[in-house]
Amino acid sequence: MTATPAARAPRRRRGFPRWLLVTILAAALVVILVVIGVVGWLVTSGLQALGAQPPAVGTTIVAPAEAKSAKAVLDDDASTREQIEAAQYLAAQPTAYWLTPEIDPIGEVGARVLNLASEAREQNASLAVVVYGLPERDCGNHSAGGLDDADYDTWTTQIGEALDATKDVQKIVVLEPDSLALAPECGNVDERVAQLHDAVGRLTGVDTWIYLDGGHSNWVPADQMAALIDSVDVEGDVRGFTTNVSNFNTTTDEFSYAHEVAGILGWGHALIDTSRNGAGATPDWCNPPGRLVGDAGGTYGDDVVDTNLWIKPPGESDGECNGGPAAGVWWPDAAVELTREAR
To answer: Active site includes 178?
Structure first.
C-alpha cells in the first residue's frame, strides 16, 4: 500500500510589506502635488513657459468689427462708391485696435477688450490693442488729451483685468505710442517713465506681450531711444518696443533701427508698423499726400524683429493738417488714396 504524503501547512504568498506600500503611495502623492504646484506657479507668475509664443512671422491679428473703417462701410449713404470700396478693403485687414478713454472710458474699456478677444477667437487670430490714454498725451499736439494719474491707474487696471480674463488668446499690447520719444521734448521724462513702469505692472499677464514706444528711424537717435526704454526698468516684464507707429519709413530702415536699439539695450524685441509705409519715408508726418498701405502684418521678422503689424489704422487722420479732420477721425479721401494700388 502506497503511503500518502503528510499534509503541509499552506504557504503564505510573499508581497510588499504594508509599510512599504504606504510609503510608495505617499511619495507618489507628494510628487503629484509638487507637479501641480509648479504648473500653478508658472501660470500665476505670468511666465511664458507653458507653450505661449510671442508674435512672429505668420501672426495674424484680429480685424475688429469696432474699427472705424468697418463702421464707415455701414455708413454708405454719405460715401462714394470708391470710398466704400476703400473702407471695405481696410475693414478686412488685420489691424490693431486703439483703446482711448475718449471712446472706451472707465467702466466700459474692459467690456471692449473682452469683445475684441471674442472676435479674435472667432477669427482664430491674436488680439492686438494700442493703449493710448496717458496723462498729457501727445504734449498738446494733434492727439492731445489723456487721463489724470488716478484715472489712468483705474483705466489701465480695467484693461489689465480684462486681458487677464482672456487666457486662450494671444494678446499683443502696444503701450502708449510716442510717449517715450516725445518725453525729452515735453520735458517730463521722469514722470513719463514712472507712469509707463506702473502701467506695465497693471497690464502684465499670461500670454500678454507688451511693447513700449521705440520712436522710429528718422526721429530719436538709437542710443537715446535705448536709454529711454531702459529707464522704464521693465526688462523681463515687456517683450520689447515698437517702431514706426503712425509713420511712413521703409521696413528696411526700421529693421536696421530696431537692431541698433536692441543692440545698445542688450535685450528686447521689436514690432514694426507697416500699415502706411508702402510709398516710403517722407519728412511730413501729419497726413502727408501720396502715401500707400504697406505690407500685410506677419510678413517679416528675424531674431530681433518679432514681426511687422498694421498698428496705425489706415484711413484715420493724423490731425488737422494737410486738409485732414481731427486726429483719429475717419477720413474717407485718405482711405481712397492709401488703398489706390491695393484694391
So the answer is: yes
For 139-176, what is each residue's pLDDT tens digit?
Answer: 767 666 789 999 999 999 999 999 999 989 999 999 99
Homologous superfamily of domain range 68-338: 1, 4-beta cellobiohydrolase (3.20.20.40)
Angle, helices 179-186 vs 189-203, to 10°: value is: 160
d(CA 163, CA 170): 10
> pLDDT digit string (tens) for 225-241?
999 999 999 999 999 99
Residue 79 pLDDT: 82
Of 138, 207, 213, 253, the catalytic one is 138
From residue 145, give the alpha-carbon distance in Å to each of 122, 158, 329.
Answer: 33, 19, 15
104 is catalytic: no
pTM for the complete prediction? 0.85
Q: 283-303: per-residue pLDDT in tens?
A: 999 999 999 999 999 999 999
* Marked catalytic residue, from 213, 253, 273, 318: 318
Residues pairing with 243 in the sheet: 272
Listed by start position, the domains of the chain span 68-338
164 annotated active-site: no
Catalytic residue among 148, 168, 178, 233: 178
